[in-house]
Amino acid sequence: GESVGLHLPTLSVQEGDNSIINCAYSNSASDYFIWYKQESGKGPQFIIDIRSNMDKRQGQRVTVLLNKTVKHLSLQIAATQPGDSAVYFCAENMMDSSYKLIFGSGTRLLVRP
Amino acid sequence: DSGVTQTPKHLITATGQRVTLRCSPRSGDLSVYWYQQSLDQGLQFLIQYYNGEERAKGNILERFSAQQFPDLHSELNLSSLELGDSALYFCASSAGGGGKLETQYFGPGTRLLVL
């Protein structure tokens, strides 16, 4: 079946550097995408979202880029901090007869001091 | 804090038993979603309720059932528990659910351990 996946299971970055987490999706009908951050022992926390009519959306220190041509989504974190260490999930939300989020497998971000 | 609450935080039980997990959505949210997160499966959508009615079903086993009450809180019932049911169970809520695309906000989860 169609699913959302991630290229890198673990990403290690130096504190202060920028981080880029990638995600590939396969469902061309998906028109809404969300990035979640999950810290150990906690539930997924909404970070940023983007609709398919946009290519880029910026938040506080985070930017999401959407390339519909190659079905690719990325999350950029500027000036990565120790508190950014977590597992990051991309999720696609497909509009059809049912309504559900399909999550990728997650990328663990480790921030080195 | 997302505003979604879940109880209990931890649950330890034995195989064959039945448990009930409870979720209260964010104030004003009409939809509740249940997810299972295990090490080898990631986050799997189980079921969605919107304003008291089942809206969508995912990979939910027949041994599992859910309901949403008039006050919009939801319960997930897991019966005839097996070792493989050990996982984190998350509840999420969103404002609507009538076919619109909305952000889901997650609760802290219930960690279920079946011995």
Helix-strand sequence of chain A:
EEEEEEEEEEE
Number of helices of chain A: 0
Classify the secondary structure makeup of chain B into a structural class: mainly beta
How would you name the oligomeric state of the polypeptide chains in this document? heterodimer
Q: What is the gyration radius of chain A calculated from CA atoms? A: 14 Å
- Total strand count of chain A, please? 11
Low-confidence regions of chain A: 1-8
Helix content of chain A: under 10%
Distance between the termini of chain A: 40 Å
State the share of residues found in helices of chain B, binned by percent.
under 10%
Largest interface: A-B, 23 and 24 residues
Gyration radius from CA atoms of chain B, angstroms = 13 Å
Q: Got a strand count of chain B?
A: 11
Q: Look at the structure and give the mean pLDDT of chain B.
A: 92
Low-confidence sequence ranges of chain B = none
Largest sheet of chain B: 7 strands, mixed
Helices and strands, with pairings:
The complex is a heterodimer of chains A (113) and B (115).
Chain A: E1 4-5, E2 10-14, E3 19-25, E4 30-38, E5 45-51, E6 56-58, E7 62-67, E8 72-77, E9 86-95, E10 99-103, E11 107-112
Parallel strand pairs in A: 2-11
Antiparallel strand pairs in A: 1-3, 3-8, 4-5, 4-9, 6-7, 7-8, 9-10, 9-11
Chain B: E1 5-7, E2 10-13, E3 19-24, E4 31-38, E5 42-50, E6 53-57, E7 64-68, E8 74-78, E9 87-94, E10 105-106, E11 110-114
Parallel strand pairs in B: 2-11
Antiparallel strand pairs in B: 1-3, 3-8, 4-5, 4-9, 5-6, 7-8, 9-10, 9-11
